[in-house]
Amino acid sequence: MSAAGQELEASGRRRHAEGDYAGALDSFERAYEAYRRQGELLSAARAARTVGWFRGWVLGDWAVHQGWLSRARSLLEQAGAGAQGWLLLEDARAGSDLESQRRLYLQVMEMARATGDCDLECEATASLGMMLVFSGHVPDGMAYLDDALAAICGGDVDELSVVEGCLCGLLNACERTHDVIRAQQWLRAAAGVFERRRLTAVAGYCRAHYGSILVAGGRWAEAEDELAASLRILPRASAVRDSALCRLAALRVQQRRFEEAEELLAGLEHHEEAVLPLAAAHAGRGRPDHAVELLERALSVDGLPDYAQAPLLAMLVDAQLALGAAEQARAASARLTAVARDQPAPYLKALAALARARIGDGDSRSCLHEAMSLFARADMPVELARCRLDLARVLAGERPSVAIGEADAARKALDQLGATRDADAAAALLRSLGAPAPGGPRQTGPLTRRESEVLALLGHGLTNAEIAERLFISVKTAEHHVGRILAKLGLRSRTEAAARAVRDKSGLA
Question: Taking every pair of C-alpha atoms in the chain, what is the biggest distance, in angstroms?
Fold first, then answer.
């Protein structure tokens, strides 16, 4: 085998481990050239696959990605002996009939085992798993992905594009099906392998999948870091960068920073992954009719998998209730319950139980208890704490002492998780029940945390009344915060404060 090609591949791995994606890509492209010069077609095809993986999953250049995969296929066709399994794998991927593709993938796996090609077996196993998951056959698909990840953790797989591609596939599948626990378990299991082999493990677009999983798991600070890293890597004006922006907007929605979410989604209104965060931003800013229109349009698409329908339906229930459309909300809730019934993810079943509680379908307390149990099983602490706050509101009239306990527990959990605006809502409920609640947020520099939030809202042009409503405080308290901000920053007017907020945000960007 070409010594030059091997050295360049090794260099590519080292650079990749160091986060030097441009350098790694250059090394693998040169390795491809070296193998081609020596007529080593199988090795050249392997290098071409890796270049294609970098172009697609790391940089988001999918047209270039397809070009390199086509080049790899051409080399495999020329290579003849030893290439049949990889060629058959490409045939499976190019198919359009689920059962025919399944048979081809299984055939590739048998061929790979017969020849001892662990890389090919892992790639085929993971590809079959992803195809099944994305076709709605979630349990079967996840079983194949688990198999592929076990092979990687066992040290059976060598090729870089296979190792990271399979992990990216798992993260993608877990994100789509809201399977936070599975993703976290495999990331823990694989951590030692990636450390020993000095693999980055999560790069480019894959980091966006990971960031979304962290958001769902309530690890917002880590999610922010992963999504920011993804956006630094991905090229501007690319489809995958747009997807990463949608995920960052979803984090902003979770943080109740609706104006920032809308800013991130400007120009992406028709992106399929923008639907949920944009609808949530509309609802959060008092435009539930806009949210309903957006959600109903998304739900009208034929062939939408159940796991994708469920979150849309859950949000539709809330938006219809905000409009006072009780019958429409009830219909959406019934549809959500039917969709979630056959899905394995406890998160989807929790959404259905929560929707039933909100429309008053049965005993709201029992529905909320069910939702809390399911959110806990799904390892989604923010949703669990929010559900607990809903329970406190239900109990407030008849059992105020119990409501105080639930609201205080919810406030503490939300505050610890960084869901400050939800924690403020819990504190407001506690005050309304006559219970003591924290009077002020922790200090975070020259401005308190609350003052920083008020400054950001000033930057979006909100009035004192709008700020008060958003932060669950009185108008007088909002005025007090604005005055303190002006004094601390040496500013003369709220207009100057708004300009300062915009400058600060631009500086951070």
Answer: 82
Nearest-angstrom CA–CA distance, 171 and 223: 14
Q: What span, in angstroms and rounded, lies between the C-alpha atoms of 146 and 126? A: 8
Identify the three-state secondary structure at position 121. helix
pLDDT tens-digit series, residues 269-287: 999 999 999 999 999 999 9
What b/e string do you get for 251-289 counting C-beta neighbours within 10 Å, with b at 16 or more? bbbbbbbbbbbbebbeebeeeebbbbbbbbbbbbbebbe
Tokens for 300, please give them.
Answer: 């009208």
> Residue 443 gets which letter from DSSP?
B
- Lookup: tokens for 424: 């403020």
DSSP 196-228: HHT---S-THHHHHHHHHHHHTT-HHHHHHHHH
CA distances from 199 to 20, 21, 168, 222, 501 (A): 12, 12, 13, 19, 39
Nearest-angstrom CA–CA distance, 368 and 375? 10
pLDDT of residue 198: 57
For residues 354 and 314, the answer to whether their CB atoms sit within 8 Å is yes
What's the confidence (pLDDT) of residue 61? 84
**Alpha-carbon Rg of the chain, whole angstroms?**
26
- The torsion defined by the Cα of 445, 448, 452 and 455, in degrees rounded to 10, comes to -120
Calpha distance 16→312 (Å, rounded): 38
- Output the pLDDT for position 454: 92
* Count of other CB atoms within 10 angstroms of residue 327: 9
Q: What is the pLDDT of residue 116?
A: 93
CA gap 327, 360 in Å, rounded: 12
- The residue with tokens 């990889």 is 86
Torsion sign over Cα 134, 225, 411, 504: negative
For the chain, list the domains and their CATH numbers. Answer: 1-80 (1.25.40.10), 441-509 (1.10.10.10)
**Cβ-Cβ contacts under 8 Å for 59 (sequence gap 6 or more):** 21, 25, 204, 233, 234, 235, 238
Residues near 262 by beta carbon (within 8 Å), at least 6 away in sequence:
249, 278, 281, 285
Which residues in the chain land under pLDDT 50? 201, 440-445, 508-509
**Distance between CA atoms of residues 477 and 61, nearest Å:** 50
Q: Tell me, what's the pLDDT at 204?
A: 62
Structure-token pair, residue 286: 């008092």
Q: Phi/psi of residue 203, each to 5°?
A: -140, 155
Reference 119, options 88, 143, 151; nearest CA is 151
Could you identify the residue written with the tokens 């306990």? 405
pLDDT value of position 199:
57
3-state secondary structure 256-295: CCHHHHHHHCCCCCCCHHHHHHHHHHHHHCCCHHHHHHHH
* Alpha carbon distance 299, 297 (integer Å): 5
